[in-house]
Amino acid sequence: MKYMGDYPSKRTRSVNELTDQIFEGALKAEPLKDEIFCQILKQMTDNHVKYSEEKGWELLWLCAGLFPPSNVLLPHVQRFLQSKKHHPLAPDCMQRLQKALRNGSRKYPPHLVEVEAIQHKTTQIFHKVYFPDDTDEAFEVESSTKAKDFCLNISSRLLLKSPEGFSLFVKISDKVISVPEGDFFFDFVRHLTDWIKKARPAKDGIVPSLTYQVFFMKKLWTTTVPGKDSFADSIFHYYQELPKYLRGYHKCSREEVFQLGALIYRVKFEDDKSHFPSIPKMLKELIPQDLIRQLSPDDWKRSIVAYFNRQAGKSREEAKLMFLKIIFKWPTFGSAFFEVKQTTEPHFPEILLIAINKYGVSLIDPKNKDILTTYPFTKISNWSSGNTYFHITIGNLVQGSKLLCETSLGYKMDDLLTSYISQMLTTMSKQRNSRGQSK
């Protein structure tokens, strides 16, 4: 009644304060779902106050996008909507009901974006998605959109050969978190903002504003082969591998560094040689940071220019592919790297670089970049993470060894490990099934 203006309410509220109060209970207790539908329909029946009725339509639109009514109530809700089919929102509510019946119930009340959309009389919600090559595009997101549908939609618009291995990520405050493919997109964002709000209490009664960005990136590199999908190479693989290379995470020969430096220059400037004189100033963008001091700036420049001239006539896209093909030969290609501190393994350095990739979990000496050991996923029996740590058990729980790491990125390591292992198990069961059928 407060939302529809039928009950006087003086104070101004945040956009979704009332919608939270209306829908939170119903999302926790099944019987209340029908109750909410009944209350809204009752409030809209023979309602002669135009403003109140319009606000009722907003609530019905939101409700239909959150959960379906029970089979007993469904025909009544549908009849109500059919009787009002001249109202612009009626057909849209009908469609939302169908999708809710197909996709199941959401877990959280409507996201701020959904409430604002319907209050501004727009039933289409567009969301900006950012890509590693610094471009972005807007995509339509519905209340019923799950992360998997969103990924499919993005990959088909970008003409990628397959969405496999790609994921949506939400960047909020200092965290970048991958969205599980089975989650409703708005549920995930809602859950995340609520969780961060709890962790950061309001200062002087001011709730911190939590803006977030959505990224679409390659997450699992199990089947990635440069040259197999030129759009994926050009938009994602090159721009995701470049910063890891420049941070000095890979072990590589000087010859490769000259070659890669020339290719990075070519991606930046194509055939334009007018930037040669400034190469010494931009070594940070061309050479792994820990190697820059090994040669004088002029020596670096001379070697990069020599290699650049050998690759004459190559386009930007060819240079990206050549860059990826060189890195692809290294055992650390497609890794996510984490710098951690460990105290459990006396024969390993205290500061370790951990790479998680398609081969498993590799421990790397950060000084010389040697791979000390790689634990394949099949040997990892347990792992856990918290705000300040990541723990992993190799072998069985009784005789296995445990590696304890101090890191603030435990949540990312945990998520990657879970995703790679679940992908491995899915692949194994598919192979088993196809072998069973072929017998």
Automatic annotation (TrEMBL):
Which Pfam families does UniProt cross-reference here?
IRS, MyTH4, RA_2
UniProt-annotated location(s): Cytoplasm
Q: Which residues form the FERM domain?
A: 125-428
Task: Show the CDD domains listed in the entry.
Answer: FERM2_F1_Myosin-VII (cd17093), FERM_B-lobe (cd14473), FERM_C2_MyoVII (cd13199)
Superkingdom = Eukaryota
Recorded hits in PROSITE patterns, A to Z, give:
FERM_3 (PS50057), MYTH4 (PS51016)
Instruction: Extract the InterPro entries matched here.
Output: Band_41_domain (IPR019749), FERM/acyl-CoA-bd_prot_sf (IPR014352), FERM_2 (IPR035963), FERM_central (IPR019748), FERM_domain (IPR000299), IRS_PTB (IPR002404), MyoVII_FERM_C2 (IPR041794), MyTH4_dom (IPR000857)
The record, for Gene3D superfamilies, names: 1.20.80.10, MyTH4 domain, Phosphatidylinositol 3-kinase Catalytic Subunit, Chain A, domain 1, Pleckstrin-homology domain (PH domain)/Phosphotyrosine-binding domain (PTB)
Residue span, MyTH4 domain: 1-119
Mind telling me which GO cellular component terms the entry cites?
A: cytoplasm; cytoskeleton
What SMART domains is this protein classified in? Answer: B41, MyTH4
| GO terms, molecular function | actin binding; ATP binding
Key words of the record: Actin-binding, ATP-binding, Cytoplasm, Motor protein, Nucleotide-binding, Repeat
Tell me yes or no: is Cytoplasm among this UniProt entry's keywords.
Answer: yes
Does the entry feature the keyword Repeat, yes or no?
Answer: yes
Q: Which family does it belong to?
A: Belongs to the TRAFAC class myosin-kinesin ATPase superfamily. Myosin family.
For this entry, the protein name equals Myosin VIIA
Query: What organism is listed for this UniProt entry?
Result: Culter alburnus
